[in-house]
Design brief:
Blueprint: H1 3-19, E1 27-29, H2 35-43, E2 49-50, H3 53-59, H4 70-83, E3 88-91, H5 100-113, E4 117-121, H6 135-151, E5 157-161, H7 172-185, E6 189-191, H8 198-207, E7 212-215, H9 223-228, E8 233-235, H10 239-257, H11 270-277
Parallel strand pairs: 1-8, 2-3, 3-4, 4-5, 5-6, 6-7, 7-8
Length: 281
Amino acid sequence: MTTDDTATTLHDRALAFRALHVPGRPLVLPNAWDLASARIVEDAGAAAVATTSAGLAWALGAADGDRLERDAALGAVAVIAAGVRLPVTADIERGYARDPEGVADTVRGVLAAGAVGVNIEDTAPEPDRGPLRAVSEQAERIAAAREAADAAGVPLFVNARVDTLLRGAGGVDDTLERAAAYRAAGADGIFVPGAVEPGTVKPLADGVDVPLNVMVGPGAPPVAELAALGVARVSAGAGIARAAHTLVRRAARELLDTGTYDTLAGSIDSGELNALLGGAR
């Protein structure tokens, strides 16, 4: 496949991924962290595959929070993107870079890996700077991501994560202020983890002019309820990866402590997994 063919394929996948973001009919993303989980998500009927940066880091032996080397993260994304038929969007944490130029390099790596979307969060890298980056600083990083993708001719979906609610650094108004700045810098969507209550989600959905992404887990409203509030994207974040690791711990403790195996009941059959992973996509 030539470079031009690759760009065309990425361009088409990026357009297809963009079209999945519809307020009121949200794109639902059970986040994956390796090829096996991505194939399972694909087989379950997902329209796209999203990585969880935390789950991916844990799978590669690193802690979450920009502690994973960029090349390792992008290598894992490349394996997933090459192994599924669906569009892939990559959670790239803070961009795996200290400055906007580094974020642009990361985005070029994301495109080379075959992904057509990114999440970029605005959490500050040093605690003494406060929980979040300055709005202007984060806007520069988003603009760098946008420019790198545009220069490559790929309409990468840049999902700007606003961590005001998650970090206790502001309310709805502060979130909307950041969202507007990130939108002006080139973001295609706004991701607000920590926003699940209808009284919070509704003004956010009404207040941004791009697709709103929320993160769900136990206690959050059902997808249908979030859809009625105007949400365009629903993701599980690291929740499924945490649940999988919880099962490992529970099964290990049961086996070691009581010598029983009830935790393993209902597992996916080996033949199913072999079939899912038996060939290239």
